[in-house]
Amino acid sequence: MPNESSSQPRDVMVRDVPIELCQFIKFGGLAESGGAAKQLVAEGGVLVNDVVETRKRKQLLAGDKVTVDGKTIVVRVR
Q1: Which structural domains are found in the chain, ordered by start?
Q2: Looking at residues 6-14, what average pLDDT do you find?
Q3: What's the gap between Cα 24 and its chain centre?
Q4: Residues 28-50 pLDDT 10s
Q5: 56 in the Ramachandran plot: left (φ > 0), alpha (ψ -120 to 50) or beta?
């Protein structure tokens, strides 16, 4: 069980909320670029708070969870 950290949510600190979904996916390292993030969202590959989200410009708030390919990041404000 040592390397199960990928299934554990990881906090990602942002300066301010709201933050756009695609921007947060890129910033949190779940996509290599903004374009890749938009494609993930368009294809239904992104969960926000455990619900499929297809709005690229969805505004996230502190505490929102974003999951891509089994990796979860959580919006935290500095």
Answers
A1: 8-77 (3.10.290.10)
A2: 89
A3: 6
A4: 999 999 999 999 999 999 999 99
A5: alpha
